[in-house]
């Protein structure tokens, strides 16, 4: 039976990278709510116009409307897909149960887990090349020469202003507070599986592939 794979992971855990690898290597589409909302900015459908009006007014898009967008988009898929950014709450998870039944799919929830101290290192240690976009980390993947891109030796690496310890700690605390009910929901329904996010990309990918 086809699956709806719900990938859960804190900022910096590597969830997005793994979703992209699964799409590239296994052909499982990664369906992101962020991408869907961006697409709707240029659409001319009644649903898109409703979303555009809400966003223009600076208001939050309701669970019900978000669900309708997810339902419309995922209805195009014939096989399994990965959901990125939905569900975010236990209420949205219950809506997804109904959608899975309608689409004759099972739900598999997988959390890419990293302890807070590791997430802090990943996010505060990030550096990037403004020319080619190559990402480094002063703790786990430093450049050959300090603060200089390996591919553009004349270019100093940049550090995002919000990748400081205080901002990152706040982002992680917010994530944990908002996501805990969702994780509890899937634990309670005995469908939450965890992958250790501390390994290298290939090791994490292989663990995910085994579960899927």
Can you walk through the features of this model?
The chain has eight helices and seven strands. By secondary structure, the protein is of the alpha/beta class. The protein has one domain: Rossmann fold (3-Layer(aba) Sandwich), CATH 3.40.50. Strand 5 and strand 6 form a beta hairpin. Helix 4 packs parallel to helix 5 and helix 6 packs across helix 7.
Number of helical stretches of at least 4 residues: 8
The strands making up the biggest β-sheet line up spatially as 2-3-1-4-7
| Helix-strand category | alpha/beta
Rg, alpha carbons: 19 Å
Largest sheet: 5 strands, parallel
Number of strands: 7
Low-pLDDT runs of 5+ residues are none
CATH superfamily (homologous) name: P-loop containing nucleotide triphosphate hydrolases
State the distance separating the first and last CA atoms: 12 Å
Q: Please state the overall shape, judged from the principal axes of the Cα atoms.
A: globular
Mean pLDDT: 93
Percent range for helical residues? 40-55%
Q: What is the architecture at the second tier of CATH?
A: 3-Layer(aba) Sandwich
CATH class: Alpha Beta
Binned strand content: 15-25%
> What is the H/E string?
EHEHHHEHEHEEHEH
Q: What's the number of domains? A: 1
CATH fold name: Rossmann fold
């Amino acid at each position: 039976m086809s699956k709806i794979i719900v990938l859960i992971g804190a900022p910096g855990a590597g969830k997005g990278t793994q979703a992209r690898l699964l799409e590239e290597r296994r052909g499982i589409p990664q369906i992101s709510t962020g991408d869907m909302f961006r697409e709707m900015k240029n659409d001319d459908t009644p649903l898109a116009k409703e979303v555009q009006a809400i966003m223009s007014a600076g208001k939050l898009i309701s669970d019900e409307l978000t669900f309708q967008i997810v339902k419309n988009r995922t209805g195009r898929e014939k096989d399994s897909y990965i959901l990125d950014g939905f569900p975010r709450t236990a209420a949205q998870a219950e809506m997804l149960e109904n959608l899975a039944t309608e689409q004759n799919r099972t739900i598999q929830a997988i959390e890419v887990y990293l302890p807070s101290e590791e997430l802090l290192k990943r996010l505060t240690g990030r550096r990037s090349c403004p020319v080619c976009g190559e990402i480094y980390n002063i703790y786990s993947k430093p450049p050959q020469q300090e603060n200089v891109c390996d591919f553009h030796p004349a270019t100093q690496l940049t550090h995002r202003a919000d990748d400081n310890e205080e901002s990152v700690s706040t982002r992680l605390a917010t994530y944990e507070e908002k996501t805990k009910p969702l994780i509890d929901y899937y634990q309670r329904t005995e469908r939450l599986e965890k992958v250790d996010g501390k390994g290298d990309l290939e090791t994490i990918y292989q663990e995910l592939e085994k579960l899927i």
